[in-house]
Amino acid sequence: MRESVQAEVLMSFLVSEELSFRIPVELGYETKDPFAVRMTFHLPGDAPVTWTFGRELLLDGVNAPTGDGDVHIAPTQPDELGDVHIRLQVGSDRALFRVSAAPVVAFLDRTDKLVPLGQERTLGDFECSLEEALGRILAEENAG
Q1: Residue 24 has pLDDT above 60, yes or no
Q2: In the prediction, which pLDDT does 130 show?
Q3: Confidence class of residue 56 from pLDDT cuts 50, 70 and 90?
Q4: In the structure, what pLDDT confidence band is assigned to residue 91 with cuts at 50, 70 and 90?
Q5: What's residue 45's pLDDT?
Q6: HSE-up of residue 128 (Cα within 13 Å, Cβ side)
Q7: Among 92, 95, 101, which Cα is nearest to 14's?
């Protein structure tokens, strides 16, 4: 069984209203973390930066504004499948990206074929991995 889905898309990094440039972004999905997608941004002159967030957040954001917190995703044109804005925020620092919805939807379709949306909990490895991760977190909190 295949355990991951990968894709590369070009996104526009919107620095300001006057300045933007295209960058390659790797999209990734793995069955060992079935609720999450990863985006690895390759900015010129910097080390790659990876953001991980909910697959459902990305799916919802293609069609309607969504996101509370550090990740906000919204279509640029309501009522049509065109481009999508992805805003990432750390503290007061923000980065805004624009991507065509078509390759994002194609990527999400491939993830759905691997693990159908709503079936993430049926993966045996996920429950085990979740227990291990929670155990590590609790051990770190108790040690600190």
Answers
A1: yes
A2: 58
A3: very high
A4: confident
A5: 87
A6: 5
A7: 95
Lookup: tokens for 133: 């991760």
Q: What is the DSSP string of 52-105?
A: EEEHHHHHHHHHS-B-SSSEEEEESSTTS--EEEEEEEETTEEEEEEEEHHHHH
Euclidean distance between CA atoms 104 and 129, whole angstroms: 27
Separation CA 107–CA 98 (nearest Å): 16
Nearest to 64 by CA among 52, 51, 81, 39: 81
Amino acid at 125: D
The pLDDT confidence band at residue 61, using thresholds 50, 70 and 90, is very high
Q: Which residues pair with 28 in a beta bridge?
A: 6, 38
pLDDT computed for residue 78 by the predictor? 75
Q: How far is CA 68 from each of CA 16, 22, 57, 58, 105, rounded to the nearest angstrom? A: 23, 26, 10, 12, 21
* Residue among 56, 43, 52, 59 nearest 88 (CA): 52
Q: How many residues does the chain have?
A: 144
Token pair for 109: 């379709």
**pTM over the 0.85 mark:** no
